[in-house]
Design a protein that fits this description.
Keywords: Metal-binding, Molybdenum, Oxidoreductase, Signal. InterPro entries: MsrP (IPR022867), OxRdtase_Mopterin-bd_dom (IPR000572), OxRdtase_Mopterin-bd_sf (IPR036374). This is Protein-methionine-sulfoxide reductase catalytic subunit MsrP. By secondary structure, the protein is α+β, with helices and mostly antiparallel strands. The protein has one domain: Oxidoreductase, molybdopterin-binding domain (Sulfite Oxidase, Chain A, domain 2), CATH 3.90.420.10. It has ten helices and 13 strands. The strands form two sheets. Strands 1, 4, 5, 8, 9, 10, 12 and 13 form an eight-stranded mixed β-sheet that branches. Strands 3-2-11-6-7 form a five-stranded mixed β-sheet. The structure holds the ligand Nc1nc2c(c(=O)[nH]1)N[C@H]1C(S)=C(S)[C@@H](COP(=O)(O)O)O[C@H]1N2 and molybdenum atom. Molybdenum atom (MO) binds next to loops.
Amino acid sequence: MIIRHKDLSEPKSHEITPESVYLKRRELMMLGGLASLFGVLPGWAHAINSVGEDASRPRWLKDQVAKAKEVKSGADESLTPYQDVTGYNNFYEFGTGKTDPADNAHTLQTDPWTVTVAGEVEKPGDYPLETLLEGLTLEERIYRLRCVEAWSMVIPWIGVPLAAILKKVQPTSKAKYVAFTSLADPEQMPGVKSPFTGIDWPYREGLRLDEAMHPLTLMAVGLYGRTLPNQNGAPFRLVVPWKYGFKSIKSIVRIELTESEPATTWNMLAPGEYGFYANVNPEVDHPRWSQSRERRLPNSFFDPNWVPTRMFNGYEQVASLYKGMDLKRNY
Ligand SMILES: Nc1nc2c(c(=O)[nH]1)N[C@H]1C(S)=C(S)[C@@H](COP(=O)(O)O)O[C@H]1N2
Ligand SMILES: [Mo]
């Protein structure tokens, strides 16, 4: 069954991938199972099988991920291969190099995982991840991810709208923002120990409540039909497809509803370069580089694969959230 969200689907004709190019999750799993019996695997199925991150995940999460339903979400472009999605990452808790997270994040312990819900909510508390997701149907959504560094990917996430989780914990009438905090454990995360990032740990992010409630805003627990690899923010991370990637905070341990705008990591570090809103906007350049185009991965030095950057990363249905706001000032 396909759940259709009308306001989410507006694929552009040039972006449509022929159905045959996109191997469906279940077909892949069957194929993977069959093929491994005979010792032949398509390249990326092999890559997934060889990662093995699923082995350390709890049964309940694997089962829930396996039952995810496809939702058309407007980015039916060619998917960025699994190897790039899981091998080229920003996750400074594990180092600042693009391959550091894939090399180092195996030390992250993701089960059991507890999320503290605090602040302006009727039902605060320490929630096991299983309880937060209980009774919710996971959705598979293909989103573009546009990093502020001017590269981008197309990723098939698995998750639930943040709105469904907020509904469980019931924001009070005073709640105006949602503040998120990542795990910051120097024992598990070598980057947290390192003096080189200048980041005041833990990594923090935030959204206005109406942004948080928007149906595009996802809490992801998987990608490519599997639970999230550690380097992509296991076991539970935010995905806000119309904002620069740094808003999509990983490995979340705390969600706090607040009355005032929360402090956010990149804004604390360089307020002139990274704003609270961070909406993808080709007309507002980063002080040190243009934001009018992006390198779509996979690419290479000789074939950078530049594509034009689109307002709100192509998710123009969010424009009404910012009516009357000067997006040059609120970058
Ligand atoms: N906790 C935490 N979350 C984070 C980051 C980080 O360094 N730490 N990097 C952000 C940036 S800059 C990007 S582009 C995305 C990258 O997500 P991906 O590695 O899954 O593609 O994660 C974001 N979330
Ligand atoms: Mo980023």
